[in-house]
Amino acid sequence: LDLSNCSLHSVPPGLAEATAAIVLDLTENPLTTLPSGSFLGFIHLQSLAVPLPLECPGGRDAWQEVTADSSSRLCQGQRNPCNTSVELAWPCPENSLCAPDGPGLFQCLCDKPFHGYKCLREGTFPMLLFGGILGTATVSLSLLLWGTQRRKAKTP
């Protein structure tokens, strides 16, 4: 994806839809910063060229090789943050796995059959119990209101 020399002052919001990009060129743009979430989901990105004043997203540790020339910085070979020898600041909770989510970013995915907050709930949502209770409450309340309000209805 070549966005070089497009007079971009900030990362375009539509860039979030290009998560399948492998090569991205942002050089020759007056960009001042790269917001931390700009490359969320870019797990396939292997080569990123940014203007020289900017650092590679995720820092030097997120890339295998970072080179700079007179006008641009080239970040190559995105590293998997889950396979580092450095201990993660926020490790994934029990019953979950770490998965890459862009340069220097990761997400925690729950193992089956766990789900919910911090992967603490096991099994599936009790749909039958929920539907039964909701249906019973709805029918009961409807009958109660019909019975109490029936006397106020006028018959023709």
Automatic annotation (TrEMBL):
Name of protein: ARAID factor
**Per the UniProt record, which residue ranges are transmembrane?**
125-146
Where would I find the EGF-like domain in this sequence?
Answer: 78-120
Q: Name one GO biological process term.
A: positive regulation of osteoblast differentiation
Which InterPro entries does the protein's record reference?
ATRAID, EGF, LRR_dom_sf
Q: List the disulfide bonds.
A: 110-119
Highest taxon, organism lineage: Eukaryota
The record lists the organism as Helopsaltes ochotensis
Is Transcription regulation among this UniProt entry's keywords? no
| This protein's UniProt keywords | Disulfide bond, EGF-like domain, Membrane, Transmembrane, Transmembrane helix
